[in-house]
Amino acid sequence: TSSPLPAPKKPTGVDLLTPGSRAPELKGRARGKPSLLAAARPMRAILPAPVNVGRGSSMGLPRARQAFSLSDKTPSVRTCGLKPSTLKQLGQPIQQPSGPGEVKLPSGPSNRTSQVKVVEVKPDMFPPYKYSCTVTLDLGLATSRGRGKCKNPSCSYVYTNRHKPRICPSCGVNLAKDRTEKTTKAIEVSSPLPDVLNATEPLSTAQREIQRQSTLQLLRKVLQIPENESELAEVFALIHELNSSRLILSNVSEETVTIEQTSWSNYYESPSTQCLLCSSPLFKGGQNSLAGPQECWLLTASRLQTVTAQVKMCLNPHCLALHSFIDIYTGLFNVGNKLLVSLDLLFAIRNQIKLGEDPRVSINVVLKSVQEQTEKTLTSEELSQLQELLCNGYWAFECLTVRDYNDMICGICGVAPKVEMAQRSEQNVLALKSVEFTWPEFLGSNEVNVEDFWATMETEVIEQVAFPASIPITKFDASVIAPFFPPLMRGAVVVNTEKDKNLDVQPVPGSGSALVRLLQEGTCKLDEIGSYSEEKLQHLLRQCGIPFGAEDSKDQLCFSLLALYESVQNGARAIRPPRHFTGGKIYKVCPHQVVCGSKYLVRGESARDHVDLLASSRHWPPVYVVDMATSVALCADLCYPELTNQMWGRNQGCFSSPTEPPVSVSCPELLDQHYTVDMTETEHSIQHPVTKTATRRIVHAGLQPNPGDPSAGHHSLALCPELAPYATILASIVDSKPNGVRQRPIAFDNATHYYLYNRLMDFLTSREIVNRQIHDIVQSCQPGEVVIRDTLYRLGVAQIKTETEEEGEEEEVAAVAE
């Protein structure tokens, strides 16, 4: 674990946030909820918010509307059972009446005269598949990802078609005028034209808050960074050219010689003259004004110098957004007008993190390399300032990167793996010296709002970039911490019951399995335990193997029984984390080591954490492999009795009844075979979409018998012959590359960075595996075949048949008929 870096002291200030500053891609969620962030000076706190029952929109999904160019000669797919949304993804015509979901768009700035039909695609039905990696793989689709030019004739801004901004970052022209916005802008007001702000007077506290919200909204709206390095190839070439700093001789004559220098500028400002949010005029001031020039570091691979960054401010009192230099296609990323860092350095940091390196170590390596290249020595104060700016800037860069977290779903297992294996990372922790976790004083809902939690984490780091003097979050309500799932693998309800976890519960004598069986049979009812006679209580204690004395009172007998119940419900005994650190994380992977879900622990790990992870999944796996199988199964029986009754009845997650000797059980549904997807099944059916059965098991791969757990033998993976190959897979995980990266010890001081880092690592390590799967399938594709995702998001191959081939077949059929 690397030692924490020194951070300069920050001044305190008013720092409120509301969900209004959320990214535009989340604006489709209409919910009147308070923010997770609240004011608590001198520290920032994350507080609980009401939960929203229901799935809501999937976080990280691309926009719901996606344009598909439908040409006159559209190839068709020669495949059986492709659903309409898959055909849309392949660009196939769908025979359906036109409705309100289709709109006509006028042609763009190119010379095309045809119109584009925009087809409404529901992302929950079939999210558009995209992926990116360091190598460009041809999926066989004839896509055209060129470039477009700003509609303003006097502007030379060029964008990639795939990442066309809504507003030109150069001149402010609306490049999406033809699109209907889903929601109105946050700064719109019902009053007539607002009064223009007096730029000579300082802003009030309320005005500074308006400015904060508007500036964050502006960054979210304009800054959309492509994830794939190949899409920024021209930007990287520009960075390399400017780093080279060439001298060019031109207009050479007998009398004059003109010298032109190609290098980085010493002055940066937004070219906009109107607000990119409300079109109000922008104010550009001088030193010590509301929007004046600021001294700023310029950091590239071969440059480390101070430059000037000019700020502009919207004069609309209802907006007041700060406009800085934010054109990433110039190769620079602006960190609060304190640091302009070249994009290639941020991508280099990401690539090192992908290998398992501590982000702070990667940042130090970059700064050390630049100092060596420039032969510039920084003071300790300057180095500390640059480290903090670059660290905050990097995480904001990741949060502003356009990313679909469904890209990390395994291409073989899809959203419903048949077997999932539990993993833990006890040394991936958050230090408690700079953050305080609080717990609710009253018992509330166990449900957590996943989208709001991650939105808060993202907004926090973007705010740290927009306003470097902001105070970071130092106080968390631990009960609102949400797990991370790819959106399509997340359940309708996501829970975190860690607030109910009791670290003081000690192991108690007795059989939890026997107690659960008595509760299932109705022999023991906890709500009636006070009315039981001493004789009945003693009989129940004997059945559960709980020792008691003849002189024990009725209350003592009840306490012994309840103590065993609490121990089982608590997930047996929670492991205490090291002092001053959180409990690490647990996560589950499919047999291909793709992460299916992660949970971040504040208190020590217990069986109920695994139950939370399973209950929050869209599909509870038919087989869950975990070393504490008995505790997980019994805890699930107590927490979700109706659900487990459908999944394993009274077998307590075993292959057979734990009251009888263990026997070998065949599970043919776990064999690899071709499955057809039944679209008539309901989304929340207990039946697994692949095995077509409601049966589930909680197993372990341990070979040694556990004398303290009589039912452990019934959970052994060796009892099922179809699971034999998975024992080898489990053994190979320990020495695998993904596991080595995920198990690197790391300790964070910043809570926001800790959660964002773990989400990023789950995504990067999983998508690397998925990219290899795609690459292997592409290599085996024949001409006319394309790679697709099916309903369960598994990779497949579809054949494309051109219209010429269709006409040829029709002629052959006609000839045969004659």
TrEMBL record:
Name this protein carries in UniProt: HMGXB3 protein
Region listing for Disordered, in residue ranges: 1-31, 85-114
Gene encoding the protein: HMGXB3
Polar residues: compositionally biased ranges: 86-98
PANTHER family: HMG DOMAIN-CONTAINING PROTEIN 3
UniProt-listed InterPro entries: HMGXB3, HMGXB3_CxC4
Pfam families: CxC4
HMG domain ranges (all copies): 261-385
Domain of life: Eukaryota
